[in-house]
Amino acid sequence: MQLVLIIALIIGIADANTLSVCPNGWIAYEGSCYLFGHEDIPMTFTAAEQYCRQHGGGHLIHVENVQENAFIKDQLRERKPIHWWLGITDEETEGIWKWFDDDSVATYTDFQPDDHDTLDQDCLIFTSVYDFRWADVQCSYKFPPICEIRSEHIEPGVVG
């Protein structure tokens, strides 16, 4: 009987370790890991992207669909800052929003009403003003980042 319990315990520990695919401090959801940057250290869009690369090799968040967006909004409602960077810009062509990590055109968006085509506002944030819908702002503004790593891009040895 003891042997069965020991084997079950070992299997349980092994299973728990295989489920932990995100680095320490990151949150797992549907094949990605997310890191919410330090709330008291806001940074520009460019600095936020660099921060994500330096902390686990990720990028600013690339929101694929309504489910992922809802998950992130739920996370943001529990945090202090009212604005957070997304990894998307229309700096290249006004009104054509492209994800910074892979240069793809956004197929899903969640803009706040009438706020996605303002000149000189080429980066997007989640804003609590409209329940964390997206708003365009100048890339030089300073907000905390939301970083993302896709599970397949996590380097061995950085698992938490």
UniProtKB/TrEMBL annotation:
Pfam families: Lectin_C. Residues 29-148 form the C-type lectin domain. InterPro entries: C-type_lectin-like, C-type_lectin-like/link_sf, C-type_lectin/snaclec_domain, CTDL_fold. SUPFAM superfamilies: C-type lectin-like. PROSITE patterns: C_TYPE_LECTIN_2 (PS50041). The keyword Signal applies. Residues 1-16 form the signal peptide. The keyword Metal-binding does not apply. It comes from the Eukaryota. Keywords: Signal. This is C-type lectin domain-containing protein. The lineage of its organism: Eukaryota, Metazoa, Spiralia, Lophotrochozoa, Mollusca.
